[in-house]
Amino acid sequence: MSASLPQPPxxxxxxxxxxxxxxxxxxxxxxxxxxxxxxxxxxxxAETIAQQNLLHFYxxxxxxxxxxxxxxxxxxxxxxxxxxxxxxxxxxxxxxxIRTISLSLEGMTCSACxxxxxxxxxxxxxxxxxxxxxxxxxxxxxxxxxxxxxSQILQAIxxxxxxxxxxxxxxxxxxxxKRRRYFVTRLGVAGIATMQVMMLxxxxxxxxxxxxxxxxxxxxxxxxxxxxxxxxxxSAQPFYIGAIRSIQAGQPNMDVPVTVALLSAYGASAxxxxxxxxxxxxxxxxxxxxxxxVGRYFELLARQKAISASANLVKLLPAxxxxxxxxxxxxxxxxxxxxxxxIIQVLPGATIPADGxxxxxxxxxxxxxxxxxSRLITKRESDPVLAGSINxxxxxxxxxTATQQQTVLASIIxxxxxxxxxxxxLARVAERMASKFVVRILMLAAATFLIWxxxxxxxxxxxxxxxxxxxxxxxxxxAAPTAVTGAIHKLNKSGILLRNADxxxxxxxxxTIFVDKTGTLTTGEFSLQATHFHSSEHQPEAIKAxxxxxxxxxxxxxxxxxxxxTDQQAKxxxxxxxxxxxxEATWHPHSAxxxxxxxxxxxxxxxxQHWHPTFxxxxxxxxxxxxxxxxxxxxxxxxxxxxxxxxTAVQALQQADIRVVMLTGDRANLAAQVAEQLGIQHVFADxxxxxxxxxxxxxxxxxxxxxxxxxxxxxxxxxxxxxxITFGHAADLARTASDVVLLRNQFSALxxxxxxxxxxxxxxxxxxxxxxxxxxxxLPVAMAGFVTPYIAAIGMSASSLIVLLxxxxxxx
Length: 812
Known about the structure:
By secondary structure, the protein is an alpha+beta fold. The chain has 6 domains: 2-72, no CATH class; 81-167, 2-Layer Sandwich (Alpha-Beta Plaits), CATH 3.30.70.100; 174-311 and 418-485 and 762-811, no CATH class; 320-350 and 355-402, Distorted Sandwich (Calcium-transporting ATPase, cytoplasmic transduction domain A), CATH 2.70.150.10; 495-523 and 642-757, HAD superfamily/HAD-like (Rossmann fold, 3-Layer(aba) Sandwich); 527-639, Calcium-transporting ATPase, cytoplasmic domain N (3-Layer(aba) Sandwich), CATH 3.40.1110.10. The protein has a 7-stranded mixed β-sheet, sandwiched between helices. Helix 15 (457-470) runs antiparallel to helix 25 (749-783). It is globular. InterPro entries: ATPase-cat-bd (IPR021993), ATPase_P-typ_cyto_dom_N (IPR023299), ATPase_P-typ_P_site (IPR018303), ATPase_P-typ_TM_dom_sf (IPR023298), ATPase_P-typ_transduc_dom_A_sf (IPR008250), ATPase_P-type_domA (IPR059000), HAD-like_sf (IPR036412), HAD_sf (IPR023214).
């Protein structure tokens, strides 16, 4: 292309067309050709234009007025705009220097497109993760911004022939309408042409019986050719594009046999028309294209249902917020302009636009958008409120703590996108099977042609065409994505977030579920129930101050009620946390007459007994103990209550022949008390994280197991479990590593989760089984010559529609 780039008049800059400096300026090399430029700026821009494959900018620009020539192509300007950090805050998240974004893709047709995009973008320096979902036409990308700009990622995708832009619900709906018009117009052309060609085909059929005049027959062939040509050149375009891209990706998809069949049938029929000899099947070309487009159109509608399911979360957020200025007056500002620390007001019935801290004394909010639970939740002053919640009672004031992509709602949407981009093992197997099936179909079609050439040369081509059409694995390619997307949509509506789609396949086989006690079987809302002081050397208030200072450094659920024991303060240093045991530090007692220090421990009974092996608690249910190397100072009983629905859920699991096992670091008597209330027969108490891991690993020898924990101190055992489940504590949502997040904070949500996964796996298996039965069953029938091309087209389209309709049952 560079060889034909127009040269500016001598003495002018190749890029900006301004006069060159007296020393000749600089030069830029494009495809081994040197061009003179006036400065470093023009040199850099010209190199960028060449790197981004935008050399048409130089070919087609109007150089008649150098002062009006744009210095940067419009395409490059648009993509470069996305590199602005302030703009990116509206659609990217950043954690530990890694930014993540969800992009909408235009031009995708199948999983081969997804594979091609993934492989191409992965090669870019700085990209950490790329996951494409062909069903929702979205891609999740994580990258290091200091190594790679967003515009470079967008351009890399554009180089493959796809258009990628940050996902926004409004633009997504516009893209869907555009895509729907794309199919409807092609479907209309194919439908009208099919009706006309079929009428001519019926006339030709009866003409064979009644000795149709050869000239009239030839005329009808030419009319059929004329009607079928727009179908082939216009209506069938989506299949050609999909076939080319799949071949480019090295993964032939179902568009390849479709394209071969269409071009072959049309070519053979056109040849017969030109030489006025043989048979024509223009009606098969038109009908085949029409039925395929009908299937693709229904597939598009199913995709849109999946896309809108996740987009609805974004659309329900308000665009405008009421922000207080320095004189407490309200001004309307775009939500995108809110900053951390702003004070906003939300009227009754309005949606909260950002995460924040409640400044009003009390409020009632509905968090059903986030949790799937529609009951009113009472919030007190200083409690966190979340974007997407609806204020139900009175005007409230909120101090903004997180905006846009940093909110909990944004974390939920990111988890949804992540789940949609990950495929369960069975889905990956189906995709590979469909890809291999295409290659085998082409081989069998070639063998069919050779065999029928010997048996009946006149029928060889049409039998081969029927084989290509009837056995196209469209249903097999749709079987898994449609079922997985439907399952994730159903789970999201129930307040259940899925991070790992493999769970859909694994959970129904789980027969053992390990549960943590604190924060899982119980609410995690602790309060101090009893205190006992052993020491007469130190005042109770001094011990309380000591415990409070150390517990303020802890995130353990038991620490919360011990963080507000007294107004006094204690001086501690060298604080060290022992996982699963407690905290060790150096204490500087205020009561000491000298500057002496004392080693101190606050934690479990086992931790204290390392220093005092014979110590026996005064409080039977105490969980937190305080000791020095010479004496035990105090013990605390922090009470918790069971979740309201825990007992019913545990009984339901046990009735389903699932073994429920309690794993807890609490003392045996505390664990036994809770287990007795719930009817749990298998209990492992006094467990360190390593002990929990050992128990779970041993159980995995008998099959897959699930683990339910609060995610704070159960990291190793959650990572080891085949299915890890946690509850949706807002503070931990963004960093949880569990496979499943139960946003409703109800133990009974586990039952609904299990029911949905069982149904999803059943539908997934039904889809794949049906697709395999159809393709394997129709193959010998088609090879034997019992299926005509248009009957093959109807059968193949019907099999795809059956798969789609079966998957749509998950949306009910």
